[in-house]
Sequence to fold (83 residues):
Amino acid sequence: MLRHPRGRAALMYGTYVGRITQNIVPLESVFDGPSGWSMDAAEMFVVMDPVTGIEYIDDQLTEDEKIFLTGRYDCYTGMFFLS
Fold:
């Protein structure tokens, strides 16, 4: 996943995700700009400047991509009821 253009979004995310990404994605890729328009709004981060009306857009990690990179897993242990 990190060798895909979405790896740039992981690098810019920072935290643990950004640290593990630094081993694969060169830091200079941050200056390359967004990978392109996506039909999925969850993959893009959009900010509008209220003064000029200019819209800025960049890549954003989806929740599934964050889970994949951090290695989270769900363990279903059943339901417990407290009385």
About this structure: The mean pLDDT is 84. The first helix runs from residue 7 to 13. The chain has three helices and two strands.
